[in-house]
Design a protein that fits this description.
The protein is an alpha/beta fold. Helices cover about 25% and strands about 30% of the residues. It starts with a strand and ends with a helix.
């Protein structure tokens, strides 16, 4: 199983290490031809406006969108969550526009307002999960096809829609591999269907 990790900017190396620790093979994705043969794609944190521009510049936007529409599992964290969203509050920036969610960027404040919090994520079991939030977005609202998987206070910070998974926090910055393992389980289930 090969997990493609979008390596245009952001914490892609940390995601690679997490998936490798789960026993998965990874491949850095910078060009459309590198998408060939991957079983899933991770869109890491970073700066979503820049990421949107780079996806266009490197010719990756449409191929990734098509692959997702054909069932490729995609996992977006932080800026990756923003890239998956169909709508962003007060923004016309480029996204893949795949998930039926409305997102608020940098919703918890600036870099100095970064924090950690214990999250209850029933899908990965107990104990609670320590979420690392850095200039994090959150999901303001989710459409009927979206499964809300975790909230911080009243804000949605993890969700899934079919083959798409997103978190507002950074699971790659902790030693807890349960979110990465959940994504790998998603892939296996999808492959068997």
């Amino acid at each position: 199983m090969i997990i493609g990790v979008l390596a245009l900017q952001g914490a892609f190396i940390e995601h690679e290490k997490s998936f490798q620790a789960c026993g998965a093979e990874t491949r850095q994705i910078r060009l459309p031809e590198q998408l060939e043969g991957i079983d899933a794609l991770v869109i890491p944190g970073g700066e979503s406006t820049t990421m949107g521009k780079l996806l266009i510049d490197f010719g990756l936007l449409n191929p990734i969108k098509e692959m997702a529409q054909n069932g490729l599992p995609i996992f977006g964290t932080c800026a990756g969550l923003v890239m998956l969203a169909k709508d962003i509050v007060k923004s016309e920036q480029t996204t893949l526009s795949l998930m039926d969610i409305l997102v608020e960027r940098n919703a918890f404040g600036r870099q100095v307002d970064s924090f950690e919090a214990d999250l209850e994520i029933p899908a990965i079991g107990n104990p609670s999960y320590r979420g690392v939030f850095i200039r994090a977005p959150y999901i303001v609202s989710a459409g009927p096809g979206v499964e809300v998987m975790a909230k911080f206070e009243d804000k949605i910070v993890m969700a899934r829609q079919n083959n798409l998974l997103c978190t507002a926090f950074h699971p790659e910055l902790t030693d807890d591999l349960r979110v990465h393992q959940y994504f790998l389980e998603m892939l296996k289930t999808q492959k068997n269907n």
